[in-house]
What does this fold into?
Amino acid sequence: MEQLDIADGFDVHEYRHGLKLLSEDRQTMHLENREEFTCPACDEPFERLFVTEKPTNTFGNPGSPFCIARTDETVLLLTH
It folds into this structure.
């Protein structure tokens, strides 16, 4: 299993072969993990990935454990 590499930022295009885009707007993306990529925070496979460039976000109850990873430009919320 390949871990998402965020050392130099996060580029979704590097992982597009295994991530299915569920929704997208100007500053956010919601993706499904189809290749069992692993989380950069805990190194476990994740189910969904939310990527945002917005300075603030509000979330409901994700219903499962989650991890947060940050790059200079984005925040990644990964649900397991």
